[in-house]
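Project outcomes to date are best conveyed with an example. Our students and postdoctoral researchers have been running inverse folding experiments weekly, and each run begins with a structure described purely in tokens. The record below, which covers 146 residues, was selected by the lab manager from last quarter's runs and is presented without edits.
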């Protein structure tokens, strides 16, 4: 068996570094290294551009709102150069987000995303985040009465 890392394993490592070091620790120099200049987000968040600058802006907005923002990666799967990750983000609401003033509440929300990694750089993103749950936790949406 070869010691050479497979394309999928290498791609998973790039995505994991982005989640842990860029999103989780605010290492924006690494962001610039990990994201291709021609990066395209197929599912940008509201008021975010679908490019590299938009992704960086979103990351900075989240860290400003949740200074301890970090994720638990539950699993990753690679299909060629596309990595799908299921994770739960955590943080303490200490800055304004979505127009909601800081509440001091600890929050968490689940995300599933797919990122294409080519030549060691993230080139594309598709994702779904449970922002409805986040809004409920911040008191911006009535709680469910299940």
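After processing, the design step wrote out the following sequence:
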């Amino acid at each position: 068996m070869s010691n050479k890392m497979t394309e999928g394993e290498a791609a998973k490592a790039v995505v994991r570094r982005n989640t842990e070091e860029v999103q989780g620790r605010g290492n924006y120099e690494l962001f610039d290294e990990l994201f291709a200049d021609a990066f395209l987000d197929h599912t940008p968040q509201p008021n975010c551009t679908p490019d590299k600058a938009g992704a960086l802006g979103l990351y900075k907005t989240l860290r400003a709102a949740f200074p301890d923002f970090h994720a638990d990666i539950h699993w990753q799967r690679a299909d060629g150069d596309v990595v799908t990750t299921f994770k739960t983000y955590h943080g303490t609401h200490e800055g304004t987000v979505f127009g909601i003033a800081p509440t001091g509440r600890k929050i968490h929300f689940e995300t599933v995303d797919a990122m294409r990694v080519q030549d060691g750089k993230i080139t594309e993103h598709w994702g779904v985040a449970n922002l409805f749950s986040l809004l409920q936790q911040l008191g911006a949406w009535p709680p469910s009465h299940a």
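The mean pLDDT is 94. Strands lie at 35-41, 70-79, 82-92, 106-118, 121-129. The training component of this project remains on track.
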